[in-house]
Amino acid sequence: MEAKVLELMCLLPPPPLSTRSVVLARLPLLPYPSPFKPKYSAHSVLRRSTSKDEPLIDGLPKEYYDDEWQARQREKTKELHRRRQDEEEEEERKVEEYREIGMRLKGYPEEDVKKARKLVASFILAAEEVEEKIEEAAEKGELTELVLMVIWNRRDLARRDEEKDAIRSLDLLYRRVETEILKREATPAMRLLNDLLNMHDGFDDEGWLKECKKCMIDTFPREDPFSILVPAGLDIDKHQGPLRPPLEADDALLRVDFVREVDALLQEVKFEQSEAQNAQGLDPESVASRLKQQEKQQTIRQVEALLDLAINLKW
Protein backbone atom coordinates (compact mmCIF):
# COMPACT_ATOMS: atom_id res chain seq x y z
CA MET A 1 0.00 0.00 0.00
CA GLU A 2 2.81 2.38 0.90
CA ALA A 3 4.67 1.55 -2.31
CA LYS A 4 1.65 2.49 -4.37
CA VAL A 5 1.31 5.77 -2.54
CA LEU A 6 4.98 6.59 -3.34
CA GLU A 7 4.49 5.77 -7.00
CA LEU A 8 1.47 8.06 -7.13
CA MET A 9 3.46 10.87 -5.51
CA CYS A 10 6.23 10.53 -8.08
CA LEU A 11 3.71 10.74 -10.91
CA LEU A 12 2.15 13.93 -9.60
CA PRO A 13 3.34 17.20 -11.25
CA PRO A 14 5.57 19.54 -9.16
CA PRO A 15 3.76 22.23 -7.23
CA PRO A 16 3.86 25.71 -8.73
CA LEU A 17 6.36 28.25 -7.35
CA SER A 18 5.01 30.82 -5.03
CA THR A 19 4.91 34.45 -5.90
CA ARG A 20 7.66 35.20 -3.34
CA SER A 21 10.02 32.71 -4.94
CA VAL A 22 9.48 34.18 -8.42
CA VAL A 23 10.16 37.70 -7.20
CA LEU A 24 13.34 36.63 -5.46
CA ALA A 25 14.55 34.85 -8.58
CA ARG A 26 14.12 37.99 -10.67
CA LEU A 27 15.95 40.29 -8.22
CA PRO A 28 19.69 40.90 -8.85
CA LEU A 29 22.20 39.38 -6.48
CA LEU A 30 23.34 41.81 -3.82
CA PRO A 31 27.06 41.91 -2.90
CA TYR A 32 26.77 40.44 0.54
CA PRO A 33 30.10 39.67 2.17
CA SER A 34 31.16 36.08 1.98
CA PRO A 35 32.22 34.39 5.18
CA PHE A 36 35.27 32.94 3.34
CA LYS A 37 36.57 36.23 1.89
CA PRO A 38 39.19 38.14 4.01
CA LYS A 39 37.75 41.25 5.49
CA TYR A 40 41.03 43.28 5.44
CA SER A 41 43.98 43.51 3.01
CA ALA A 42 47.60 42.67 3.89
CA HIS A 43 48.63 46.33 4.18
CA SER A 44 45.67 47.09 6.41
CA VAL A 45 46.61 44.14 8.60
CA LEU A 46 50.17 45.50 8.93
CA ARG A 47 48.83 48.93 9.75
CA ARG A 48 46.39 47.49 12.23
CA SER A 49 49.12 45.37 13.81
CA THR A 50 51.28 48.44 14.35
CA SER A 51 48.52 50.38 15.97
CA LYS A 52 48.69 51.16 19.61
CA ASP A 53 45.52 49.21 20.36
CA GLU A 54 46.90 45.82 19.31
CA PRO A 55 49.99 44.28 20.98
CA LEU A 56 53.10 43.32 18.94
CA ILE A 57 54.56 39.84 18.76
CA ASP A 58 57.10 39.24 21.47
CA GLY A 59 60.74 39.37 20.34
CA LEU A 60 60.18 41.43 17.16
CA PRO A 61 61.01 45.15 16.94
CA LYS A 62 58.41 47.64 15.85
CA GLU A 63 60.39 48.41 12.67
CA TYR A 64 59.84 44.83 11.55
CA TYR A 65 56.29 45.74 10.56
CA ASP A 66 57.39 48.81 8.55
CA ASP A 67 57.73 48.18 4.80
CA GLU A 68 60.05 51.15 4.26
CA TRP A 69 62.37 50.01 7.03
CA GLN A 70 62.53 46.52 5.56
CA ALA A 71 63.31 47.96 2.11
CA ARG A 72 66.16 50.00 3.57
CA GLN A 73 67.52 46.94 5.34
CA ARG A 74 67.48 44.97 2.10
CA GLU A 75 69.42 47.74 0.36
CA LYS A 76 71.98 47.78 3.17
CA THR A 77 72.38 44.03 2.87
CA LYS A 78 72.95 44.30 -0.88
CA GLU A 79 75.52 47.05 -0.33
CA LEU A 80 77.36 44.92 2.23
CA HIS A 81 77.45 42.02 -0.21
CA ARG A 82 78.84 44.29 -2.92
CA ARG A 83 81.53 45.63 -0.61
CA ARG A 84 82.49 42.15 0.48
CA GLN A 85 82.73 41.04 -3.13
CA ASP A 86 84.89 44.06 -4.01
CA GLU A 87 87.19 43.36 -1.06
CA GLU A 88 87.54 39.74 -2.08
CA GLU A 89 88.35 40.72 -5.66
CA GLU A 90 90.90 43.30 -4.46
CA GLU A 91 92.52 40.75 -2.17
CA GLU A 92 92.67 38.22 -4.99
CA ARG A 93 94.21 40.82 -7.29
CA LYS A 94 96.91 41.66 -4.73
CA VAL A 95 97.71 37.99 -4.20
CA GLU A 96 98.03 37.55 -7.96
CA GLU A 97 100.33 40.58 -8.19
CA TYR A 98 102.51 39.29 -5.37
CA ARG A 99 102.67 35.91 -7.07
CA GLU A 100 103.65 37.58 -10.34
CA ILE A 101 106.40 39.57 -8.61
CA GLY A 102 107.74 36.41 -7.00
CA MET A 103 107.76 34.57 -10.33
CA ARG A 104 110.07 37.14 -11.94
CA LEU A 105 113.14 35.61 -10.31
CA LYS A 106 112.27 32.00 -11.12
CA GLY A 107 114.46 32.00 -14.21
CA TYR A 108 117.63 32.82 -12.25
CA PRO A 109 119.74 30.37 -10.22
CA GLU A 110 118.71 30.27 -6.58
CA GLU A 111 122.23 30.89 -5.32
CA ASP A 112 122.60 34.00 -7.48
CA VAL A 113 119.24 35.29 -6.27
CA LYS A 114 120.34 34.91 -2.64
CA LYS A 115 123.58 36.80 -3.30
CA ALA A 116 121.73 39.58 -5.11
CA ARG A 117 119.26 39.93 -2.24
CA LYS A 118 122.07 40.11 0.30
CA LEU A 119 123.81 42.76 -1.79
CA VAL A 120 120.65 44.86 -2.07
CA ALA A 121 120.06 44.51 1.67
CA SER A 122 123.61 45.76 2.31
CA PHE A 123 122.90 48.79 0.10
CA ILE A 124 119.76 49.59 2.08
CA LEU A 125 121.52 49.24 5.44
CA ALA A 126 124.55 51.26 4.30
CA ALA A 127 122.61 54.55 4.57
CA GLU A 128 125.13 57.37 3.93
CA GLU A 129 127.84 54.95 2.78
CA VAL A 130 125.73 53.54 -0.03
CA GLU A 131 127.83 55.28 -2.71
CA GLU A 132 130.99 53.54 -1.52
CA LYS A 133 129.16 50.22 -1.34
CA ILE A 134 127.87 50.57 -4.90
CA GLU A 135 131.27 51.53 -6.31
CA GLU A 136 132.93 48.68 -4.44
CA ALA A 137 130.38 46.21 -5.78
CA ALA A 138 130.87 47.59 -9.29
CA GLU A 139 134.63 47.09 -9.09
CA LYS A 140 134.08 43.49 -8.02
CA GLY A 141 131.65 42.93 -10.89
CA GLU A 142 128.72 42.19 -8.58
CA LEU A 143 126.33 44.68 -10.16
CA THR A 144 124.25 42.73 -12.65
CA GLU A 145 120.79 42.70 -14.15
CA LEU A 146 119.67 40.38 -11.35
CA VAL A 147 120.52 43.04 -8.74
CA LEU A 148 118.37 45.54 -10.63
CA MET A 149 115.54 43.00 -10.76
CA VAL A 150 115.68 42.47 -6.99
CA ILE A 151 115.51 46.24 -6.38
CA TRP A 152 112.64 46.50 -8.87
CA ASN A 153 110.70 43.77 -7.05
CA ARG A 154 111.22 45.45 -3.69
CA ARG A 155 110.00 48.73 -5.14
CA ASP A 156 106.89 47.06 -6.59
CA LEU A 157 106.08 45.48 -3.24
CA ALA A 158 106.49 48.84 -1.52
CA ARG A 159 104.21 50.42 -4.11
CA ARG A 160 101.54 47.76 -3.51
CA ASP A 161 101.74 48.46 0.23
CA GLU A 162 101.75 52.25 -0.37
CA GLU A 163 105.01 52.83 1.52
CA LYS A 164 105.99 56.20 0.07
CA ASP A 165 109.35 56.56 1.82
CA ALA A 166 110.44 53.09 0.79
CA ILE A 167 109.33 53.73 -2.79
CA ARG A 168 111.39 56.92 -2.98
CA SER A 169 114.50 55.31 -1.49
CA LEU A 170 114.32 52.21 -3.67
CA ASP A 171 113.73 54.32 -6.77
CA LEU A 172 116.88 56.34 -6.07
CA LEU A 173 118.82 53.15 -5.36
CA TYR A 174 117.63 51.61 -8.62
CA ARG A 175 118.71 54.66 -10.62
CA ARG A 176 122.11 54.79 -8.95
CA VAL A 177 122.85 51.10 -9.53
CA GLU A 178 121.58 51.32 -13.11
CA THR A 179 123.79 54.34 -13.75
CA GLU A 180 126.83 52.52 -12.37
CA ILE A 181 126.13 49.47 -14.56
CA LEU A 182 125.68 51.63 -17.65
CA LYS A 183 128.84 53.51 -16.78
CA ARG A 184 130.85 50.29 -16.64
CA GLU A 185 129.38 49.05 -19.91
CA ALA A 186 129.44 52.39 -21.73
CA THR A 187 131.90 53.45 -24.39
CA PRO A 188 134.71 55.91 -23.56
CA ALA A 189 132.73 58.72 -25.20
CA MET A 190 129.65 58.06 -23.06
CA ARG A 191 131.76 57.78 -19.90
CA LEU A 192 133.37 61.13 -20.67
CA LEU A 193 129.95 62.67 -21.33
CA ASN A 194 128.70 61.36 -18.00
CA ASP A 195 131.71 62.78 -16.17
CA LEU A 196 131.26 66.16 -17.83
CA LEU A 197 127.57 66.29 -16.89
CA ASN A 198 128.38 65.40 -13.29
CA MET A 199 130.79 68.34 -13.11
CA HIS A 200 127.86 70.77 -13.33
CA ASP A 201 126.89 72.24 -9.96
CA GLY A 202 123.50 73.40 -11.21
CA PHE A 203 124.24 77.14 -11.11
CA ASP A 204 127.38 78.40 -12.90
CA ASP A 205 127.05 77.40 -16.56
CA GLU A 206 130.03 79.46 -17.77
CA GLY A 207 132.38 78.09 -15.15
CA TRP A 208 131.17 74.58 -15.91
CA LEU A 209 131.87 74.99 -19.64
CA LYS A 210 135.40 76.25 -18.88
CA GLU A 211 136.10 73.19 -16.75
CA CYS A 212 134.69 70.95 -19.47
CA LYS A 213 136.94 72.58 -22.07
CA LYS A 214 140.02 71.89 -19.95
CA CYS A 215 138.95 68.29 -19.49
CA MET A 216 138.39 67.85 -23.24
CA ILE A 217 141.81 69.31 -24.06
CA ASP A 218 143.43 66.89 -21.63
CA THR A 219 141.43 63.93 -22.96
CA PHE A 220 141.38 64.37 -26.73
CA PRO A 221 144.63 64.03 -28.70
CA ARG A 222 145.74 67.12 -30.58
CA GLU A 223 144.43 67.23 -34.11
CA ASP A 224 146.64 69.87 -35.72
CA PRO A 225 148.56 68.82 -38.88
CA PHE A 226 151.91 68.76 -37.10
CA SER A 227 150.70 66.32 -34.44
CA ILE A 228 149.27 64.06 -37.14
CA LEU A 229 152.58 63.80 -39.03
CA VAL A 230 154.92 63.87 -36.04
CA PRO A 231 154.35 61.89 -32.83
CA ALA A 232 153.95 63.80 -29.61
CA GLY A 233 157.26 64.47 -27.84
CA LEU A 234 159.42 64.58 -31.01
CA ASP A 235 161.60 67.66 -31.39
CA ILE A 236 161.70 68.25 -35.14
CA ASP A 237 164.59 70.74 -34.88
CA LYS A 238 166.88 68.46 -32.89
CA HIS A 239 165.38 65.26 -34.30
CA GLN A 240 165.03 63.90 -30.82
CA GLY A 241 162.13 62.07 -29.25
CA PRO A 242 159.99 58.99 -29.87
CA LEU A 243 159.32 58.14 -33.48
CA ARG A 244 156.34 55.93 -32.68
CA PRO A 245 153.29 56.89 -30.67
CA PRO A 246 152.93 55.17 -27.30
CA LEU A 247 150.93 51.94 -27.18
CA GLU A 248 148.28 53.42 -24.89
CA ALA A 249 147.49 55.93 -27.63
CA ASP A 250 145.49 53.20 -29.37
CA ASP A 251 142.84 53.49 -26.64
CA ALA A 252 142.72 57.27 -26.79
CA LEU A 253 139.34 58.88 -27.35
CA LEU A 254 139.27 60.99 -30.48
CA ARG A 255 137.24 64.15 -30.60
CA VAL A 256 135.51 63.04 -33.78
CA ASP A 257 134.31 59.83 -32.09
CA PHE A 258 132.99 61.79 -29.14
CA VAL A 259 131.12 64.19 -31.43
CA ARG A 260 129.66 61.34 -33.48
CA GLU A 261 128.36 59.35 -30.49
CA VAL A 262 126.99 62.37 -28.65
CA ASP A 263 125.20 63.59 -31.76
CA ALA A 264 123.63 60.15 -32.31
CA LEU A 265 122.52 60.10 -28.67
CA LEU A 266 120.91 63.52 -29.01
CA GLN A 267 119.03 62.52 -32.14
CA GLU A 268 117.67 59.42 -30.42
CA VAL A 269 116.62 61.29 -27.28
CA LYS A 270 114.95 64.09 -29.23
CA PHE A 271 112.98 61.57 -31.26
CA GLU A 272 111.71 59.92 -28.08
CA GLN A 273 110.83 63.30 -26.61
CA SER A 274 108.82 64.25 -29.69
CA GLU A 275 106.76 61.06 -29.40
CA ALA A 276 106.14 61.45 -25.67
CA GLN A 277 102.98 63.32 -24.72
CA ASN A 278 103.13 65.73 -21.83
CA ALA A 279 100.53 65.12 -19.12
CA GLN A 280 98.31 68.11 -18.43
CA GLY A 281 96.56 66.98 -15.24
CA LEU A 282 97.17 68.16 -11.69
CA ASP A 283 97.29 64.73 -10.09
CA PRO A 284 100.59 63.57 -8.53
CA GLU A 285 101.49 61.31 -11.46
CA SER A 286 101.01 64.09 -14.02
CA VAL A 287 103.03 66.56 -11.96
CA ALA A 288 105.84 64.03 -11.53
CA SER A 289 105.79 63.32 -15.27
CA ARG A 290 106.10 67.01 -16.10
CA LEU A 291 109.00 67.41 -13.67
CA LYS A 292 110.79 64.49 -15.29
CA GLN A 293 110.24 66.01 -18.72
CA GLN A 294 111.66 69.33 -17.54
CA GLU A 295 114.69 67.56 -16.08
CA LYS A 296 115.25 65.74 -19.36
CA GLN A 297 114.98 68.97 -21.31
CA GLN A 298 117.59 70.59 -19.08
CA THR A 299 119.95 67.65 -19.54
CA ILE A 300 119.42 67.76 -23.31
CA ARG A 301 120.40 71.44 -23.35
CA GLN A 302 123.55 70.66 -21.39
CA VAL A 303 124.49 67.86 -23.80
CA GLU A 304 123.91 70.21 -26.74
CA ALA A 305 126.25 72.74 -25.12
CA LEU A 306 128.93 70.06 -24.67
CA LEU A 307 128.52 68.92 -28.27
CA ASP A 308 128.95 72.48 -29.53
CA LEU A 309 132.00 72.91 -27.29
CA ALA A 310 133.59 69.72 -28.64
CA ILE A 311 132.94 70.72 -32.26
CA ASN A 312 134.53 74.15 -31.83
CA LEU A 313 137.32 73.03 -29.48
CA LYS A 314 140.64 74.83 -29.98
CA TRP A 315 143.95 73.80 -28.44
UniProtKB/TrEMBL annotation:
Residues 70-147 form a coiled coil. InterPro entries: PALE_CRESS (IPR034563). It comes from the Eukaryota. Keywords: Coiled coil. GO terms for biological process: cellular response to light stimulus; chloroplast mRNA processing; chloroplast organization; leaf morphogenesis. One of its GO terms (cellular component) is amyloplast. This is Protein PALE CRESS, chloroplastic. The lineage of its organism: Eukaryota, Viridiplantae, Streptophyta, Embryophyta, Tracheophyta.
